[in-house]
Each structure stands twice: as C-alpha cells, then as structure tokens.
Write a structure and sequence with these properties.
The protein is of the alpha/beta class. Helix content is about 25%, strand content about 30%. The chain is globular, with a radius of gyration of 21 Å.
Length: about 350
C-alpha cells in the first residue's frame, strides 16, 4: 500500500467513510456467533489498537472469549515476520488456550459478507484437512503474487496456482481458511522447525501437490473487494457507492459494526453541491463534491471542487482547490488555489 501504510496497518485503512477494512471481517465473525478472536498484527498497529479498543462494538468485550491483540516480537525475534506461519508462531499460546475444535483464519484486507457457520459446516462434512474460501472473479481480473487459484476438473480439485490462474473459471482464494485447531498448532511448529514460513506456498500448494493434502474449496457468492494495492483500495472505496454493492453490504439483516465516535452530524452549507458521495459525520461541506468518499471531520470550503476522491479524516480543502482522482491523507490541509489531478487507474496521494 506504499505511503498509505507508512504509519498505519492495512487493516485500519478507512473504507466507506466511517468504516475500517477490518470492520467487515470482524462483523462477519460477530454475526456468525464467534466469540474468541485473535488479531495478528505486523507493524504500525497503534491506529488499529485505537480503533479496536476493547472490542465492545463487535460484542467481544466478554469474560469467556473476547478480542485478543497478538503483536509480533513476543518470541524475542525483533525482525518482521517472514510469512503467516511465522506470524502465527507467536499466537501458539493463544491457540493453545482456546477450547474450540476449529480455527478460521481471515485476511483483514478482504471486504465481503459471509456466514462462517456455513463454511464450517461444509468443512466438517467434506472431511478435508483444510477448507479454503474462494470466489469467481471477472475475466479481466489480474492476479498478483499473493493470489491463490484453484483449478478444477469437474468437481475434483486439479491444481493449485500461486500468482496466476491458468483458467478464467478458476476459483480465487479470499485468504480465508478453516482447519482443526490442534492441526494448525502442529503444522506451525513443524514448519517453523524447517524454516518454511509461507502458508499458501509451503503448506497448501506443496501439501496438495506432494503430500496428499485434502483441500475443500467453499465457493463464496456476492461481492469480494480485495485491497492489495493503492489502485485496488481506491477503486474499492468508489465501488461501495454503487447501488448493488452498497445494498449488499449495508442493506441486509447482518450489519457491519464499527467503533462509534458519537460525533455531531455533518453540516451542508448553503450553495454546496454534493452528488453521489459517502459522507461520514462531523464534516462541514460548503463546496462541490462528486462521486467521492469523505471520512469524519472533513472541511470542504466554498469554491473547492472534489471529484472521484477519498478524503480521509480531518482533512481541510480550502476555497479554490481542485482535486480529482486522488486520495487525500488524514489531517492534510490544502491551501487555496492548488490543484491535484490523478488518473482513474492511478490516483495521486496528497499529504
């Protein structure tokens, strides 16, 4: 995520105005009745800790279970984790204390709506070693180095690819996996002893090809927004404003929870022109805005123009400023008369 994650974790990036990326996966867990959640952090996680707090918004401030923040460096190793397996090694004490039979691992940067009860039910019925949640992407979807694709021959899993997909009909992993808790602990300890740290490459792909690992793939329906780059994050924020996507995420009986700030409503001044925008609370809108996302406490002065932008919390856009196809960082103050114009596929970051 480049400059966007220089001082914050990817999971704490704002999306849809008042939400953070991690809110969607935590809400899926809360709506599925999950009461014990461990959040593996990597670096720059102070904003994430501030957002999560005690976990009360997701009903995770409880005596039995609850929300546990699992920072790195608990084993005395001060280097950045080299993969998910090494990151989970520091979580073994947490996993060992759990009384559950199964563990669900999720990528917090993926935005979707999913019922984990249905995933677990299919996993148990399949008798597989691990279940991967995946979806079908558009034909023009471009894989990156993290993507895992599953190729089938009929209903039989034929091959597992990383960083590519041989067939446009392949299911693409969403970074969500289900397996037995004790098996997860054993595989982490075993793979750490062999200096193998990549869950998808060293365990899933190699296990399927060379060691007979039985993989069940659960096909998720609906919209899946992967936030792997500045471009995808920018496009996904704007996609949430589409009618079908907005209704899917926010119009169901399964709400998306986030930290409540109890701030004053947004004020729209005389003469403002706002069209197709997501606007959070405590903003002051006097200028012109089109197809943009405003986080909390943003000031848009009269005479300022914003189009196809993400304006983060506390930013101030002065009169005479023109911004298009841009991401304006938190607490940025833009003086009168400046102009920032990015490309639709390559937004400019203003800070």
């Amino acid at each position: 995520m480049g400059e966007l994650t220089k001082e914050r974790a990817t999971a704490s990036l704002p999306i849809g105005g008042r939400y953070r990326l991690i809110d969607f996966m935590l809400s899926n867990m809360a709506n599925s009745g999950i009461i014990s959640v461990g959040v593996l952090t990597k670096y720059n996680y102070s904003s994430l800790l501030d957002h999560l707090g005690s976990g009360s918004e997701w009903d995770l401030n409880r005596k039995n279970g609850g929300l546990f923040i699992l920072p790195p460096f608990t084993s005395g190793n001060l280097s950045e984790p080299r993969g998910k397996i090494e990151a989970m090694y520091s979580a073994i004490p947490f996993l060992s204390r759990l009384q559950t039979d199964y563990v669900i691992m999720c990528d917090a940067s993926v935005v979707c709506k999913i019922d984990f009860n249905k995933v677990l039910e299919q996993h148990v019925q399949s008798g597989a070693d691990i279940t991967a949640v995946a979806n079908r992407e558009e034909d023009d979807y471009s894989c990156d180095g993290q993507d895992v694709s599953f190729e089938f021959s009929g209903e039989t899993l034929k091959d597992v690819f990383i960083g590519q997909r041989e067939d446009k009909s392949s299911l693409m992993s969403m970074g969500i996996y289900v397996l037995e808790r004790e098996r997860l602990i054993k595989l982490v300890e075993e793979f750490m002893s062999k200096e193998r740290y990549n869950l998808e490459k060293d365990f899933i792909q190699d296990g399927f090809i060379n060691r007979g690992l039985k993989i069940n793939v659960y096909e998720a329906k609906g919209t899946v927004l992967r936030n792997r780059s500045i471009e995808s994050y920018y496009k996904n924020n704007l996609r949430i404003m589409e009618n079908s996507v907005r209704r899917e995420f926010f119009g169901s009986d399964l709400p998306v929870y986030t930290r409540v700030r109890d701030e004053i409503p947004t004020m729209y001044g005389d003469g403002c022109d706002v069209n197709d925008c997501f606007v959070a609370d405590e903003c002051k809108i006097f200028g012109k805005a089109e197809n943009s996302v405003f986080c909390r406490n943003v000031i848009l002065e009269a005479g300022a123009q914003v189009k196809n932008c993400i304006i983060m919390q506390g930013a101030k856009i002065s009169a005479g400023v023109q911004i298009e196809n841009a991401i304006v960082e938190k607490n940025t103050c833009l003086s009168s008369g400046v102009s920032f114009i990015g490309a639709p596929n390559s937004p400019v970051i203003v800070q």
